[in-house]
C-alpha cells in the first residue's frame, strides 16, 4: 500500500496538483520541504542584518524610509516561511533552535559584510535580483503553502530589487568617488551572488528528487545562467564592469559565458568560516536572548486569557 500511495502521490505531482498539509506525502518529501523552507526562512531573518547595519547611516530620509521598509519586509518573509514550515509538523521553536545552535544552514550570501552605502544598492540589485530569479519558479512549487507564500514574497522582492538598482544608478551617475564606490560594491558582491544558486548541477545532491517532486523547476546552473543573462546588460547600462575578465557573449548559444566560480570559498562559507558567519549568529543569539521577556510575557498573557475564558 505504501508503494501505491507513493505512485498516486507522484501521479498528482505529474498532473500539477497542489499538495496540501493534510494530504499524504512521502516522508522524504516532507523532510526536503522542511529543510528548504526553514533554510529559506533563516536566510530572510539573517538577511536583515547586513542591511540593518546601514539604517542609521542612510544618506537621506527617503533612503532611510525605503531601507527600513525593505528590512521589515524581510522579517515578514521569514515569518510567512516559518509558518509554511510549521504546516509540515515542525515547530518554530525547533527551527529557531537549529539556527541559533549553528546546525541549520542559511544562504551563504549573508555572511559577507556591508562596507559602504553602495553595498545597499548592490544587495538590492544583485542579491534580491538573484532571490527573485530563484523564487519566481517556487510560486509554482508543488507544495501549496510554500507556493502561495512565494507570490507575495516575490512582489515585495521586486520592489527591493528596484530600490537597489536605483541606488546603483544614482551612484554611477554621481561623482567619480560615488561611481568608484558602486564599482567596488559590484566587485565584492558579484561572485558571492553567483554562489547563491547553489553548487553546480553535477554536485547538487538534492536536485534530482526536488525536480521530480516539482519543488524545484529549474536546476542551480540553469537559474544561475538566467541571472547572469539578465544582469550583465543592467551592469552595462550603469556603466559598470562585471569583475570577470573572461565574461563574453556566446552568439551561437545566446548566453553570457562566465568564468570559474571559487567553490572552495563557497564551501568555506557553508562550513561556518565566511567573513561574518560568527558575527551573524552572535547577533541573532543576542536578539533571541534579549527578546526572552517578550515571549514569556506573551505566554503568561495567553495563559491568563485562557484561564479567564474557562471560568
Ligand atoms: N547557501 O543539493 P543542493 C533571500 C546547500 S534569498 C547556503 O543544490 P537544494 C531574500 C543546500 O541547502 C536566499 N547553503 O540543495 C533576501 C544543501 O545543504 P543541506 C534564500 C546552500 O536545496 C534578499 C547543499 O548546499 N533563498 O533570503 C547554498 O536542492 C536580500 C547542497 O545543495 C532560498 O533559500 C547557499 N547559497 O538547492 C533576504 C531559496 N546553496 O540542506 C534579505 C530556496 C546550496 O543538504 C536580503 N532554496 N546550499 O545541508 C532553494 O531554492 C534551494 O534550497 C537552493 C539549493 C537552490 C538554495
TrEMBL record:
InterPro entries: Aromatic_CoA_ox/epox, Ferritin-like, Ferritin-like_SF, PaaA, PaaA_PaaC. The keyword Transit peptide does not apply. GO terms for cellular component: cytosol. GO terms for biological process: phenylacetate catabolic process. GO terms for molecular function: phenylacetyl-CoA 1,2-epoxidase activity. Keywords: Oxidoreductase. This is 1,2-phenylacetyl-CoA epoxidase subunit A. The lineage of its organism: Bacteria, Pseudomonadati, Pseudomonadota, Alphaproteobacteria, Acetobacterales. The gene is paaA.
